[in-house]
Design goal:
The structure is a homotetramer. Helix content of chain A is about 60%, strand content about 5%. In chain A, a hairpin with a 2-residue loop joins strand 1 and strand 2. In chain A, helix 6 runs antiparallel to helix 9. A two-stranded antiparallel ribbon of chain A has the order 1-2. With about 400 residues, chain A is mainly alpha-helical. Chains in contact: A-B, A-C, A-D, B-C, B-D, C-D. Chains A and D meet through strand 1, strand 2, helix 6, helix 7 and helix 8 of A and strand 1, strand 2, helix 6, helix 7 and helix 8 of D.
């Protein structure tokens, strides 16, 4: 996938693309059918039905166009699967499911891949930032507050505080549940319970619950009982994605300041045509940071939309708010992956200019507080004013180390 | 275009699609080149250069992928045009322009088509609502406030107040300026002024201004001097789009209530498979209203993103906020067109059930206020309590008529 | 009013404070009662009833606490007015109105004062910016794009483009309708129509419409028929407020960059303790710009809330979305006034440092484009590269002049 | 505190009011001073300095007005404390701190009280919902999807799914870290490190870290190294608050539907004047649900503002985004407490009407799916179609039980 108006979109590859989601939805139907067979509700002839082989990326367009009739693409998908499957399999496809089950669980499956990718990116960045914090532990620079020179610091501390934000984003992602969502027509698992009852099972509801469990296991999703109108899983995922763009946006906001020619303490990695201009040959623009900031500016309102949708979820399937989630989640997810990839590239190749940092520090009056403190105790100021930078860096490196270990 | 996660997306056709935007950007380059020739700055050999013929929808993908280097697709587009044009034309392409000029003006050109389509939709809806307000001028129903029965009203008044909202949306759209944005590298029109100066023009800056004027005229856009960091045109457009989805969302919010089986005063138009369910054969879901509400719920945060971007616009080209606008505007624009088309269909075929309205009204105690008023003046209540419904309907029809006249 | 967490809040004085809104709501009741008397519906004894004298700022707290019962403060207010008025007046207070009429129209009355204040602020700023654009018409500085040096410009052009944004905000405000909203219990003006009918009026609905007209005239508000669920007036006002903070936010975003010590082309006005630090005696922070940016960052989501509320407005009085508007509008309105006042102060005293601008320009390579252009036509570059700055400034000054004239 | 435009505001009492925040900020200064003494950096005479006694609620107004100079109220607060304290104490107040430390940590202290209150509310609601789910385990009603009748369910399941959302909100809150934020002027703890160095401590940075630790312990806050520009703690808190309003908003969205007179399956608790109308004596409006929905509609954009602020956090103290957080967090926090209190009242007194539920179910065709399923296996449909409702309720009650246990 590419997007003329979202440069870098291709970095997200086919994650959450229409074909990917189609495949995810088919995987849900397939796992469910397998579960029906395993539970003895659907006949053995359905074993190994290759539903995935029945649909193709090329089906997306027609399914998408038809999806308006039912308000979602599942009705068309089920019709298509039933049409293409063998007669016996056909009869059993989608039994016990409702559209929402397939869409929600399909989205979660695609989200799982997004989250995995993001965690890899974050782990890479944590490594890169640990190196920067270590190397520049003692590289002096100005700490700036409210745009003005404040006190001395080191670039290592800045990298360490960036790292803290990235570690926070990692931990938020890793705490996410990405659950299966299967409840049937009204969230009561009635159809499979009926099937089990009619088949004479002593505990038909228990069979339904087991079907959900085994489908979750097959798909590699977390188990959760139906959450058709309890959308906290979706909002938590959205918040975690925005948590990522916050962490990167803040780094990029520092970079766009520090690469200004009058400050010139950092440069973006130089690579090929990156940063060129259509009219000014001499320019080198901090294009990675700019594109990351773009994502960070536009992510929070998308997260808010997911919350608004959650708050308006009425009945046993909401009348519009649920439908607002899907594409919002996709846009947010892909943009997060793109920004993450750009941030990894940015941090891996970030050029640090210690001499310029030293020069700017030299030009700044940053010892006002130290003078006040020394006067307070009637002493001569000590030889430096870097405070606890080493301790802060060490603490940050410790947090980082635990995560990097998990991603060898 | 279709979108598996945004059912109905195909209603927006190719409006603002990647190929459409590519063509828009080429149209900008082309109009500008023509202007350079007409002003005598570029040589006559450039006359009639068919830039549009040099690029194809198939170029979108590569241009999009390359766009990350410069942060936008124009550098790649200019390279491609120069590569494919004749040598003489090639030398003159994009002279005096900067990427932002091409993107901003290209987006405005595509926006112009969106706005035209929306105004047609709104005019259709105003016609349909005028008919509903006229036919049901005297169809009694309950006025509900805070979910409870309040006083009697007529469905004609409801249609008239819906119409007022749609008329407001129309007027907001029709007041929009959709301007050309051309300022050159730093917003000073320096390159063309230099060209004119070197060519010996007595008023070289005047030539630059005329180039902008004639480009606006060629493209059918409003004239405005460079607004590279004054983004009020973009926010006004976004606000007007959200104004549309507000007007429709409010109608749809009424419809999803009034089609509930216990109320049953309205039905969505019955057509083909619309409103079907994947598991419950008996259902008929108000799918148009649901999809309209989806758009209405997700539009305001997109409008907000455009404002945030406008507020953060620094320097002579912002470091991220500008880049956040493009895709946000596109998503908002296309969704607005889709929702408008759905609302037109909804209103054209809306089924009104006067008998059920009368029945619900009969079951409701809605004369409490009338009793109080009559007691206040010591009289017997009058024969009805419909207030000024006719006057309100007439006033709304008058507003509507003026607009319908413009769209025969 | 002051607010410990919103420094500068006192600049908005009592605009839209609880006491002001209480007075506004009483003014609505009062104007309506006068209209009833003038129309012969209420008895002459109600003439000149001094409702405003019956309530006091001290009533706010109790009314606010009681407001939860009815969901709004009007029930309590009406009870209080009736309790304190003479018997004859008491019987006629609020007849024909509903809570929503009083709240909506009361809010519009308070909004009117906000808009008037904002237009004064904007006119002041337009004057100040016109002066800056004129004085610094020829003050050279670097045009920066994507954080990097691009081409030469002048500070006059920057001031002129700032001015263009402020003029846009002014025009958006001045185009606002700020309408009366009176519709009675269900938006049908039934109670007064009943009163007129029982009194034997030949056209009782016409009397109701006249009551709305005369109330609008008394209150100095625009006329509009009931818009209880057509909330476009509110969203337009919200959008216009955000339009203001966008215009100022963008100026402040430039200032926070240009006051950085390494750039140092601007300083905020030096006044008293402004810009001091609690720990660093040497600092001078650009506190006005920082506080303006704060407002600009937080305004767009508030505007979005108004739109969401508008889109969800169902029935004849919505079940929650209407209630979300009031405080959102107030917060947005007051913050806009505060930011406007801060921006006026900022622009009135902005210190411009031409020597530093020249120095930064001298250090920058900004003639790359000019060289390319000159090569293109095989000539030696002209003596400067300021393009059409004078023409752009003149065009901006022209727009400004028309507005300044209206505010002598 | 009361708020004329936010009915119910008084439910939040003085939580996060200006006086409460003033006291919180003084508590921070006080805990820090104690830590300085305990570490031997400040003299023993400062022991037991009663800073809290030096300021009063009445100081808020002046401090707020003056806060604009420094951009925050701490400069004025420190001046006031130093002015009122004894000479020896005065000299040592605020040494090593910066404004941001006091504001951030003061806000966290006030947030701690908010979170505690919310957890109590949520636990109450979980109890109430557990009772409803248990009592109505077998109370049949219609499951509605996309506004239409779908399949049978029981009200117990609805209560259980509401409960799941509330439990999610509880768990999100209970997982929050609410940390101390102390970093000194530039986030390096330089001043106290200098003090310790000048006093001859062998590990002066270690002393600084210990000061932060002991301050956190004194204040009952979580420990975290300086997060002046790593705002994930703030966004996580905001997200958790919005998580609460989501959970409640969704309940309220169900209630406003089910109390409609045509449906009439639920009533809000009847109490005093709650739900009355200013013009229609017969009405009983679902005012609690309406006010909860109001909060749920307006919360997500406030959460988004906190994220935007986090993403824009540059330098060692940001130039506007930090300032946007404070009041946003307060508004969101107080509204969340108000909505939570209203939701507790709603759930504690919610009236359920099983007969009406049965009647609506009887009128609905909800067995379409069951017929299809029975046909599929060639059997007669079983006696009911409630699926796994008991299992789902049990699972929800289990989750609830663990939380209720913690709040005896």
């Amino acid at each position: 996938m590419t997007n003329l108006l979202w440069p870098g979109d291709q970095r997200a590859g086919e994650l959450m693309s229409d074909p990917t989601l189609l495949a995810s939805m088919v995987a849900v139907e397939s796992a469910w059918l397998d579960a029906l067979v395993a539970a003895g509700l659907a006949p053995d002839q359905c074993t190994g039905a290759d539903l995935a082989g029945l649909v193709h990326a090329a089906d997306c367009e027609l399914l998408a166009a038809e999806s308006e009739d039912g308000g979602n693409p599942v009705i068309g998908l089920v019709a298509l699967l039933r049409d293409r499957a063998s007669a016996e399999v056909s009869r059993w496809i989608h039994r016990g499911l409702t559209s929402q089950d397939v869409i929600d669980t399909g989205l979660m499956l695609a989200t799982r891949a997004i989250v995995d990718e993001l965690m890899l990116q974050l782990a890479e960045q944590i490594s890169a930032l640990s190196v920067l914090a270590t190397i520049h532990r003692g590289t002096p620079m100005v700490a700036r507050t409210l745009t003005q020179n404040a006190v001395p610091t080191t670039f290592g501390v800045k990298a360490a505080t960036w790292c803290n934000g990235v570690v926070d984003a990692y931990q938020q992602l890793s705490a996410l549940a990405i659950p299966v969502q299967i409840g049937g027509a009204g969230g009561t698992l009635a159809a499979t319970t009926e099937l089990a009852a009619l088949a004479g099972h002593p505990n038909p509801a228990g069979i339904s619950v087991e079907l959900v469990q085994s489908t979750a296991a097959t798909l590699g999703l977390d188990l959760r009982m139906p959450w058709h109108t309890t959308r906290s899983s979706v909002t938590a995922i959205g918040d975690a994605f925005v948590g990522c763009t916050d962490a990167w946006g803040r780094i990029a906001s520092d970079v766009v300041t520090l690469v200004r020619p009058e400050i010139a303490e950092l440069s973006e990695p130089a690579a090929g045509n990156r940063g060129g201009s259509s009219s000014m040959p001499q320019k080198r623009n901090p294009v990675l940071s700019i594109l990351i900031r773009r994502a960070a500016i536009s992510a929070p309102p998308l997260g808010a939309t997911l919350h608004t949708a959650a708050a308006l979820a009425n009945d046993e399937r909401p009348d519009g708010s649920w439908h607002a989630e899907w594409e919002t989640l996709r846009i947010l997810a892909r943009r997060t992956v793109v920004a993450g990839s750009q941030c990894s590239e940015l941090l891996a190749g970030l050029e640090v200019h210690p001499a310029q940092m030293a020069k700017n520090l030299g030009n700044a009056d940053v010892l006002g507080e130290q003078r006040v403190i020394a006067e307070l105790v009637g002493k001569v100021p000590s030889g430096n004013y870097f405070g606890a930078v080493d301790a802060l860096i060490d603490e940050s490196l410790d947090r980082a180390k635990r995560i990097v270990k998990e991603h060898p």
